[in-house]
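Exercise 7. Given the encoded structure of a 147-residue chain, write a plausible sequence.
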């Protein structure tokens, strides 16, 4: 959701992409209703995860368009695992984005060490820390150890 973008540099970057070849999505009243229903469904699970309207709208949009949701929100990340009619939705956190970029060779990493270095660069630039356990898990997926 563009409204949640804090950095002027990021806003400028997104704006340039949108001007070049993008579209903005304006939710319909039906989409808002479905997003509100999703928020209530997640709250009713009673497991301590929550989502707010921006995440709910993204999840509803992704379900309709088979898009990937990018979110660090644990509630949004949990929705496909907990709500049946959202099971096909993919939610990627930063670690999955970096992993997929490396796996698809968009981000050039050559070994576990260079993958971990990319994670550290991301953490320095964003202030968002990724759990070491997650970093190791994805590094090992990219570079399986031979026994």
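Solution.
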């Amino acid at each position: 959701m563009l409204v949640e973008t804090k950095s002027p540099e990021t806003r400028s970057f997104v704006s340039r992409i949108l001007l070049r070849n993008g579209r903005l999505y304006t939710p319909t009243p039906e989409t808002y209703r479905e997003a509100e229903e999703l928020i209530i469904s997640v709250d009713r699970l009673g497991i301590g995860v929550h989502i707010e309207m921006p995440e709910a709208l993204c999840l509803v949009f992704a379900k309709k368009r088979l898009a990937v949701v990018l979110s660090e929100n644990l509630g949004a990340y949990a929705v496909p695992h907990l709500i049946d009619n959202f099971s096909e939705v993919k939610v990627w956190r930063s670690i999955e984005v970096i992993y997929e970029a490396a796996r698809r060779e968009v981000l050039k990493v050559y070994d576990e060490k260079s993958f971990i270095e990319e994670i550290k660069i991301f953490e320095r630039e964003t202030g968002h820390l990724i759990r070491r356990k997650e970093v190791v898990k994805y590094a090992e997926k990219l570079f399986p150890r031979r026994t």
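Remark. The mean pLDDT is 89. Students should compare their own answers with the one above.
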